[in-house]
Amino acid sequence: MQPITRGEFVRFQRFILDHAGITLADSKQALVTGRLGKRLNHHHIESYGEYCDLLQGGTAPDEVQIAVDLLTTNETYFFREPKHFEFLREQAVAARAAGRGFRVWSAASSSGEEAYSVAMVLADCLGEAPWEVLGTDISLQVLQRAARGVYPMERARHVPPAFLRRFCMKGTDRFEGTLLISKDLRRRVRFGQVNLNEPLPDVGTFDLVLLRNVMIYFSNETKQGVVSRVATTIRHGGHFCIGHSETLNGLNHALEQLAPSIYRRAGP
Ligand SMILES: C[S@@+](CC[C@H](N)C(=O)[O-])C[C@H]1O[C@@H](n2cnc3c(N)ncnc32)[C@H](O)[C@@H]1O
Questions:
Q1: Separation of CA 46 and ligand 1 centre (Å)
Q2: Residue 268 confidence (pLDDT)
Q3: Measured from the CA of 198, which atom of ligand 1 is nearest?
Q4: 72 CB near ligand 1 (under 6 Å)
Q5: Hey, which residues does 135 pair with through a beta bridge?
């Protein structure tokens, strides 16, 4: 593996900050060489400086996407932070009682486990009533996995057994050892690429937005921009969930805190 100089590492810090708003700590040199080393080999490039030239030359947008995919951390699992799913059920049941549909955005969805967990709860409590889940991420690689809805079987351990029976199929033949999200559930969940560090496309308004375990990678300045943009997509009276290890302290926002990681947009 090629060594990386301090100056080269600083260029990668700048690159991922500019593209994704992600702050790479000074201690993350091994992460950069571990994840990007194979791209140098792929291009027969001798140094990280040359690879950075390729990324910044404006001639290799596909390579920029690959580098962003490799530098993002995509850890996730089904029903992570279960209290949010209890809260989701309460809100969805209240919306049904009020005769409203229900829309949820999983705004850093990674490979889709969060969006499908939401969909399982909504299918369970709303059935065929109108509801929709949008899952977005900056990484195309994880979005492709999300859209397929095929996961290693060991991922099933966080899915409640009744949901596993109802919404997941056990892979056979070439899918042996995998679970496949049922077609009925997959057709209620849409995935697409959204970079939260840029102006948002028109995604509509949501009853609940989940923005979990991504702001830990953002500086306060990036967080401020992201939260301001995302908050406009929450309907008045709708809700916003962040990861349990995250906080909106120190940011300007008009959200009312209901619990440590749950906020409400003021309004009727
Ligand atoms: C650790 S995962 C969290 C997944 C899920 N929300 C959860 O809590 O399990 C963080 C995700 O944020 C995505 N991400 C990082 N920067 C982003 C940005 N600027 N815009 C959109 N997604 C981003 C990464 O690609 C990664 O998939």
A1: 31
A2: 64
A3: 19
A4: yes
A5: 106, 191
pLDDT, tens digit, 9 for 90 and up, residues 12-44: 999 999 999 999 999 999 999 999 999 999 999
Instruction: Give the whole-angstrom CA distance, residue 24 versus residue 14.
Output: 9
**Which residue pairs from 248-255 have beta carbons closer than 8 angstroms and sit at least 24 positions apart in sequence?**
248/223, 250/220, 251/220, 251/223, 251/224, 251/227, 252/224, 252/228, 253/227, 253/228, 255/231
**Which regions in the chain score pLDDT beneath 70?**
268
Is residue 143 in contact with ligand 1, taking CB distance under 6 Å? Answer: no
Note the residue count of the chain: 268
Nearest atom (ligand 1) to Cα of 110: 27
Distance CA 146, CA 203 (A): 18
Please give the C-alpha separations between residue 254 and each of 199, 228, 236, in angstroms, as whole numbers.
Answer: 19, 9, 11
For the entire predicted model, the pTM comes to: 0.96
Please count the other Cβ atoms lying within 10 Å of the Cβ belonging to residue 173. Answer: 5
Give the phi and the psi of residue 118 in degrees, each rounded to 5. Answer: -60, -45
* Nearby residues of 89 by Cβ (< 8 Å), 6 or more positions away: 121, 124, 125
Q: Whose CA is nearest to atom 19 of ligand 1?
A: 20
Distance between CA atoms of residues 32 and 70, nearest Å: 9
